[in-house]
Amino acid sequence: MADLVRVEGGTFNMGSDLPSARKREKPVHEVELDTFYIAKTELSQQLFEHIMGWNYSYFACEFCAVNNLSWKNAQSFILKLNTITGLKLNFPSEAQWEFAAKGGNQSKGYTFSGSDNIDEVAWNANNAQKRSRAVASLKPNELGLYDMTGNLWEFVLDDMSRVAYQHSELKNPVYSITDDSSKTTMKVIRGGGYEFSAAESEVFKRDGATSNVRMPDIGFRLAMNDDAN
């Protein structure tokens, strides 16, 4: 089972008004979150294969993050894992993800998750040699979370909208177009990946991928609300 880190609830500024921020990352808005848990690392291929019995990841290695699976594939894994464990694990919401990536209430305001020097904390275009790497092999951020910048993009709960930040709830927001997970929608991915540069990997950056797409640079990490177990 992946190690979960308790993230104390709090209030933070989500998004950015920096010149490098795009419309999809604006405006900065204050968000309040309840306490939650988030996995210390991206989900490993070892755990995924143990639960599902298959692993189609590129760059196969048991301690590398599982990839080349869709948002829907990952939901099937989570459903099976919850049945086995009795927990209520899921993806983090986008707001939970960003709060944790920024260091939660211990944030030091870094450009990347855990440092202003991307190579200290992230496998990126400068150091990854165009492939994903074993999880937790670089420095963690303020909360002890690894690879929140770089290595793989990470799916979150939310549907992607370029104007979501203009209309989102201020407490525990989750932007969703439909509650029917069988429908194909554009999902938010966060964190950057192994082929992305520092300029593309600032901690507020967000992108999207359809819920049925499988890519070698997209994975996920688990999360759980504080009242879910």
TrEMBL record:
Which species is this UniProt entry from?
A: Alginatibacterium sediminis
Sulfatase-modifying factor enzyme-like domain boundaries: 2-55, 66-223
Protein name as catalogued: Sulfatase
The record, for InterPro entries, names: CTDL_fold, Sulfatase_Mod_Factor_Kinase, SUMF_dom, SUMF_sf
Lineage runs: Bacteria, Pseudomonadati, Pseudomonadota, Gammaproteobacteria, Alteromonadales
Coiled-coil intervals, chain numbering = none
Q: Name one GO molecular function term.
A: formylglycine-generating oxidase activity
